[in-house]
Amino acid sequence: MSRILVLGNATVDVIQRVARLPVAGETLLGEPPLRCAGGKGLNQAIVAARTGAAVDFAAAIGDDAEAALLRAAIAGEGLQRLDWIVVDAPTDLSSIWVDAEGRNMIVSSAACAAALSPAQAAARAGAMAAGDWLLMQGNLSSAATQAAAAAACARGVRVAINAAPIAFDWTAILPLCDLLVVNEVEAATLCGGEDPRMAARRLAAGCDVVLTLGAAGAVLQARDAATLIAAPRAARRRAGSRRGAGSPPSRRRRARRARRHPRRGRHRGGRCRSMPCAPHPT
To answer: Is residue 281 pLDDT above 70, yes or no?
Structure first.
Protein backbone atom coordinates (compact mmCIF):
# COMPACT_ATOMS: atom_id res chain seq x y z
CA MET A 1 0.00 0.00 0.00
CA SER A 2 1.36 3.41 -0.95
CA ARG A 3 1.85 5.94 1.82
CA ILE A 4 1.27 9.68 1.94
CA LEU A 5 3.66 12.09 3.60
CA VAL A 6 2.06 15.45 4.23
CA LEU A 7 4.90 17.91 4.65
CA GLY A 8 3.30 21.21 5.53
CA ASN A 9 2.17 23.53 8.26
CA ALA A 10 0.17 23.36 11.46
CA THR A 11 -1.53 26.37 12.98
CA VAL A 12 -3.78 27.29 15.84
CA ASP A 13 -6.93 28.68 14.22
CA VAL A 14 -8.79 31.48 15.99
CA ILE A 15 -12.23 31.52 14.38
CA GLN A 16 -14.91 34.16 14.79
CA ARG A 17 -18.31 34.12 13.13
CA VAL A 18 -19.71 37.46 11.99
CA ALA A 19 -22.95 38.46 10.29
CA ARG A 20 -20.95 39.79 7.34
CA LEU A 21 -17.32 40.35 6.50
CA PRO A 22 -15.91 43.80 7.33
CA VAL A 23 -14.80 46.36 4.81
CA ALA A 24 -11.48 48.19 5.16
CA GLY A 25 -11.34 50.24 8.34
CA GLU A 26 -14.58 48.82 9.77
CA THR A 27 -15.00 47.27 13.23
CA LEU A 28 -17.66 44.58 13.68
CA LEU A 29 -18.88 42.58 16.65
CA GLY A 30 -18.59 38.82 16.31
CA GLU A 31 -19.27 35.67 18.27
CA PRO A 32 -16.79 34.49 20.95
CA PRO A 33 -13.62 33.11 19.30
CA LEU A 34 -13.06 29.39 18.89
CA ARG A 35 -9.47 28.11 19.13
CA CYS A 36 -8.69 24.83 17.39
CA ALA A 37 -6.01 23.00 15.46
CA GLY A 38 -5.74 23.89 11.79
CA GLY A 39 -3.45 24.77 8.92
CA LYS A 40 -3.64 23.36 5.41
CA GLY A 41 -1.01 20.71 6.08
CA LEU A 42 -2.54 19.45 9.31
CA ASN A 43 -6.10 19.53 7.91
CA GLN A 44 -5.13 17.60 4.79
CA ALA A 45 -3.23 14.98 6.79
CA ILE A 46 -6.20 14.38 9.11
CA VAL A 47 -8.77 14.07 6.35
CA ALA A 48 -6.53 11.77 4.29
CA ALA A 49 -6.09 9.53 7.35
CA ARG A 50 -9.84 9.49 7.95
CA THR A 51 -10.34 8.01 4.45
CA GLY A 52 -8.17 5.05 5.50
CA ALA A 53 -4.94 6.09 3.80
CA ALA A 54 -1.59 5.46 5.50
CA VAL A 55 -0.50 8.99 6.33
CA ASP A 56 2.62 10.49 7.92
CA PHE A 57 2.65 14.16 8.88
CA ALA A 58 5.61 16.48 9.36
CA ALA A 59 5.37 20.12 10.39
CA ALA A 60 7.37 22.77 12.22
CA ILE A 61 5.97 24.15 15.47
CA GLY A 62 7.23 26.27 18.36
CA ASP A 63 7.82 25.33 21.97
CA ASP A 64 4.76 27.00 23.52
CA ALA A 65 1.17 26.50 24.67
CA GLU A 66 -0.12 26.62 21.08
CA ALA A 67 2.17 23.74 20.13
CA ALA A 68 0.80 21.73 23.05
CA LEU A 69 -2.73 22.36 21.74
CA LEU A 70 -1.73 21.01 18.33
CA ARG A 71 -0.06 17.91 19.76
CA ALA A 72 -3.13 17.07 21.82
CA ALA A 73 -5.61 17.75 19.02
CA ILE A 74 -3.96 15.46 16.48
CA ALA A 75 -2.89 12.64 18.80
CA GLY A 76 -5.95 10.45 18.22
CA GLU A 77 -6.39 10.99 14.49
CA GLY A 78 -4.85 7.73 13.30
CA LEU A 79 -1.77 9.15 11.61
CA GLN A 80 0.97 6.56 11.12
CA ARG A 81 3.82 8.85 12.14
CA LEU A 82 3.96 12.36 13.58
CA ASP A 83 7.14 14.33 12.98
CA TRP A 84 6.97 17.56 14.99
CA ILE A 85 9.97 19.73 14.12
CA VAL A 86 10.47 22.23 16.96
CA VAL A 87 11.91 25.56 15.81
CA ASP A 88 12.77 28.84 17.51
CA ALA A 89 9.60 30.73 16.59
CA PRO A 90 6.06 31.13 17.91
CA THR A 91 3.69 28.42 16.67
CA ASP A 92 1.89 29.66 13.57
CA LEU A 93 -1.58 31.12 14.03
CA SER A 94 -4.49 31.89 11.69
CA SER A 95 -7.17 34.51 12.34
CA ILE A 96 -10.35 33.49 10.51
CA TRP A 97 -13.59 35.41 10.09
CA VAL A 98 -16.59 33.50 8.73
CA ASP A 99 -19.82 35.22 7.66
CA ALA A 100 -23.39 33.93 7.63
CA GLU A 101 -22.97 32.66 4.04
CA GLY A 102 -19.87 30.64 4.92
CA ARG A 103 -17.47 33.02 3.17
CA ASN A 104 -14.26 33.72 5.03
CA MET A 105 -11.25 35.96 5.37
CA ILE A 106 -8.00 34.49 6.70
CA VAL A 107 -4.68 35.94 7.79
CA SER A 108 -1.97 33.46 8.85
CA SER A 109 1.49 33.75 10.31
CA ALA A 110 4.12 31.40 8.91
CA ALA A 111 7.32 31.85 10.92
CA CYS A 112 7.47 28.16 11.87
CA ALA A 113 6.65 26.90 8.38
CA ALA A 114 9.25 29.24 6.89
CA ALA A 115 11.86 28.01 9.38
CA LEU A 116 11.84 24.48 7.92
CA SER A 117 15.11 24.29 5.99
CA PRO A 118 15.58 22.80 2.51
CA ALA A 119 17.84 20.13 4.05
CA GLN A 120 15.17 19.14 6.59
CA ALA A 121 12.49 19.00 3.89
CA ALA A 122 14.66 16.98 1.49
CA ALA A 123 15.65 14.51 4.21
CA ARG A 124 12.03 13.64 4.96
CA ALA A 125 11.02 13.32 1.31
CA GLY A 126 14.17 11.35 0.54
CA ALA A 127 13.23 8.69 3.09
CA MET A 128 10.08 7.74 1.16
CA ALA A 129 9.64 4.73 -1.13
CA ALA A 130 8.80 4.56 -4.83
CA GLY A 131 5.05 4.70 -5.34
CA ASP A 132 4.40 6.83 -2.25
CA TRP A 133 2.87 10.30 -2.41
CA LEU A 134 4.36 13.53 -1.09
CA LEU A 135 1.72 16.20 -0.44
CA MET A 136 2.74 19.82 0.15
CA GLN A 137 1.12 23.24 0.19
CA GLY A 138 2.35 26.79 -0.26
CA ASN A 139 3.20 27.42 3.38
CA LEU A 140 6.83 26.29 3.32
CA SER A 141 9.54 28.38 1.72
CA SER A 142 10.12 28.07 -2.01
CA ALA A 143 13.55 26.52 -1.40
CA ALA A 144 12.22 23.90 1.03
CA THR A 145 9.29 23.03 -1.25
CA GLN A 146 11.54 22.60 -4.26
CA ALA A 147 14.13 20.57 -2.30
CA ALA A 148 11.48 18.17 -1.02
CA ALA A 149 9.87 17.76 -4.44
CA ALA A 150 13.23 17.08 -6.10
CA ALA A 151 14.19 14.54 -3.43
CA ALA A 152 10.83 12.81 -3.85
CA CYS A 153 11.18 12.62 -7.62
CA ALA A 154 14.64 11.09 -7.27
CA ARG A 155 13.09 8.30 -5.17
CA GLY A 156 10.22 7.59 -7.57
CA VAL A 157 7.75 9.28 -5.21
CA ARG A 158 4.78 11.08 -6.74
CA VAL A 159 4.28 14.73 -5.81
CA ALA A 160 0.94 16.43 -5.15
CA ILE A 161 0.88 20.14 -4.45
CA ASN A 162 -1.91 22.38 -3.21
CA ALA A 163 -0.47 25.69 -4.38
CA ALA A 164 -1.97 27.86 -1.68
CA PRO A 165 -1.14 30.35 -0.50
CA ILE A 166 0.75 31.64 -3.51
CA ALA A 167 3.60 33.40 -1.76
CA PHE A 168 6.44 32.77 -4.23
CA ASP A 169 7.21 31.94 -7.85
CA TRP A 170 6.19 28.33 -8.61
CA THR A 171 7.88 28.15 -12.02
CA ALA A 172 10.73 25.84 -10.94
CA ILE A 173 8.48 23.60 -8.81
CA LEU A 174 5.53 22.86 -11.13
CA PRO A 175 7.58 20.61 -13.45
CA LEU A 176 8.22 18.32 -10.44
CA CYS A 177 4.50 17.94 -9.77
CA ASP A 178 2.25 14.96 -10.67
CA LEU A 179 -0.96 16.46 -9.28
CA LEU A 180 -1.70 20.16 -8.75
CA VAL A 181 -4.71 21.36 -6.72
CA VAL A 182 -5.77 25.00 -7.06
CA ASN A 183 -8.89 27.11 -6.82
CA GLU A 184 -9.97 29.56 -9.50
CA VAL A 185 -8.02 32.50 -8.11
CA GLU A 186 -4.83 30.46 -7.72
CA ALA A 187 -5.08 28.96 -11.23
CA ALA A 188 -5.49 32.40 -12.74
CA THR A 189 -2.59 33.78 -10.69
CA LEU A 190 -0.25 30.99 -11.79
CA CYS A 191 -1.06 31.80 -15.41
CA GLY A 192 -0.85 35.58 -15.27
CA GLY A 193 -4.56 36.35 -14.82
CA GLU A 194 -5.85 33.93 -17.44
CA ASP A 195 -9.43 32.57 -17.24
CA PRO A 196 -9.32 29.78 -14.59
CA ARG A 197 -10.62 27.03 -16.90
CA MET A 198 -8.11 27.98 -19.59
CA ALA A 199 -5.39 28.22 -16.94
CA ALA A 200 -6.19 24.70 -15.72
CA ARG A 201 -5.87 23.35 -19.27
CA ARG A 202 -2.52 25.07 -19.69
CA LEU A 203 -1.25 23.80 -16.34
CA ALA A 204 -2.37 20.28 -17.30
CA ALA A 205 0.29 20.20 -20.02
CA GLY A 206 2.68 19.12 -17.28
CA CYS A 207 0.57 17.37 -14.63
CA ASP A 208 -3.00 16.50 -13.72
CA VAL A 209 -4.89 19.45 -12.21
CA VAL A 210 -7.79 19.60 -9.77
CA LEU A 211 -9.50 22.98 -10.13
CA THR A 212 -11.89 23.56 -7.23
CA LEU A 213 -15.01 25.61 -8.01
CA GLY A 214 -16.67 26.12 -4.63
CA ALA A 215 -20.35 25.16 -4.69
CA ALA A 216 -20.00 24.13 -8.37
CA GLY A 217 -17.68 21.26 -7.39
CA ALA A 218 -14.34 20.74 -9.09
CA VAL A 219 -12.78 19.85 -12.43
CA LEU A 220 -10.17 17.12 -12.80
CA GLN A 221 -8.20 18.39 -15.79
CA ALA A 222 -5.87 15.97 -17.57
CA ARG A 223 -3.84 16.83 -20.64
CA ASP A 224 -6.59 15.83 -23.08
CA ALA A 225 -9.76 15.48 -20.99
CA ALA A 226 -11.68 17.17 -18.20
CA THR A 227 -14.04 15.56 -15.67
CA LEU A 228 -16.53 17.61 -13.65
CA ILE A 229 -16.87 16.46 -10.03
CA ALA A 230 -20.05 17.57 -8.27
CA ALA A 231 -19.72 19.23 -4.88
CA PRO A 232 -20.82 17.17 -1.87
CA ARG A 233 -24.27 18.14 -0.65
CA ALA A 234 -22.91 19.83 2.47
CA ALA A 235 -20.61 21.99 0.35
CA ARG A 236 -23.53 22.97 -1.91
CA ARG A 237 -25.53 24.12 1.12
CA ARG A 238 -22.63 26.27 2.34
CA ALA A 239 -21.51 27.71 -0.94
CA GLY A 240 -18.52 29.74 0.18
CA SER A 241 -17.21 27.67 3.04
CA ARG A 242 -15.39 25.00 0.98
CA ARG A 243 -13.98 27.17 -1.76
CA GLY A 244 -10.30 26.66 -1.04
CA ALA A 245 -8.17 23.86 -2.41
CA GLY A 246 -7.35 22.90 1.16
CA SER A 247 -10.96 21.99 1.85
CA PRO A 248 -12.06 18.47 2.83
CA PRO A 249 -13.60 17.49 -0.57
CA SER A 250 -10.33 18.01 -2.43
CA ARG A 251 -8.33 16.30 0.33
CA ARG A 252 -10.56 13.23 0.14
CA ARG A 253 -10.17 13.10 -3.66
CA ARG A 254 -6.37 13.15 -3.34
CA ALA A 255 -6.42 10.36 -0.75
CA ARG A 256 -8.75 8.18 -2.83
CA ARG A 257 -6.64 8.82 -5.93
CA ALA A 258 -3.46 7.74 -4.16
CA ARG A 259 -5.04 4.46 -3.08
CA ARG A 260 -6.77 3.66 -6.37
CA HIS A 261 -3.71 4.29 -8.54
CA PRO A 262 -0.70 3.01 -6.62
CA ARG A 263 1.33 2.75 -9.83
CA ARG A 264 0.01 5.80 -11.59
CA GLY A 265 2.32 8.70 -12.28
CA ARG A 266 4.49 10.09 -14.95
CA HIS A 267 8.01 8.72 -14.98
CA ARG A 268 11.05 10.84 -14.31
CA GLY A 269 14.58 9.72 -14.99
CA GLY A 270 14.30 5.92 -15.19
CA ARG A 271 10.47 5.99 -14.92
CA CYS A 272 7.72 7.47 -17.16
CA ARG A 273 8.73 11.14 -17.51
CA SER A 274 6.36 14.02 -16.95
CA MET A 275 6.26 16.74 -19.56
CA PRO A 276 7.52 19.85 -17.78
CA CYS A 277 5.06 22.72 -17.34
CA ALA A 278 5.83 25.85 -19.25
CA PRO A 279 6.88 28.77 -17.09
CA HIS A 280 3.91 30.52 -15.55
CA PRO A 281 4.18 34.14 -14.39
CA THR A 282 2.96 34.97 -10.90
So the answer is: no
Predicted structure pTM score: 0.80
Q: What is the mean pLDDT of the chain?
A: 86
CB 278 within 8 A of CB 205: yes
In this predicted structure, what is the pLDDT of residue 250? 52
Give the CATH number for residue 50: 3.40.1190.20
Summarize the confidence of residues 259-270 as an average pLDDT. 42
Give the separation between CA 133 and CA 149, rounded to whole angstroms: 10
Q: Is residue 45 part of a domain?
A: yes
β-bridge mates for residue 39, sequence order = none
In this structure, the chain runs to a length of 282
pLDDT at 128: 97
> How does DSSP assign 56-76, residue by residue?
EEEEEE-SSHHHHHHHHHHTT
Dump pLDDT digits (tens) for 54-72: 999 999 999 999 999 999 9
**Within a domain: residue 266?**
no
- Is residue 156 included in any domain, yes or no? yes
Q: Say whether 123 sits in a helix, a strand or coil.
A: helix
How many domains does the structure of the chain reveal? 1
**Full residue range of the structural domain in which residue 81 is found:** 3-9+40-88+116-260
Q: Provide the pLDDT for residue 219.
A: 96
Quickly count: other Cβ atoms within 10 Å of residue 195's Cβ: 12
How far is Cα 112 from Cα 262, in angstroms, rounded to an integer?
A: 32
Measured CA to CA in angstroms, residue 164 lies from 81, 100, 136, 140, 196 at distances of 24, 24, 9, 10, 15
Q: How far is CA 126 from the centre of its chain?
A: 20
pLDDT at 214: 85
210 assigned to some structural domain: yes
Going along 191-270, which residue ranges are E strands? 208-212, 218-221, 226-229
Whole-angstrom distance, CA of residue 131 vs CA of residue 4: 10
Dist CA 248 CA 152 (whole Å): 25
Using alpha carbons, select from 36, 244, 278 the residue that is nearest to residue 139.
244
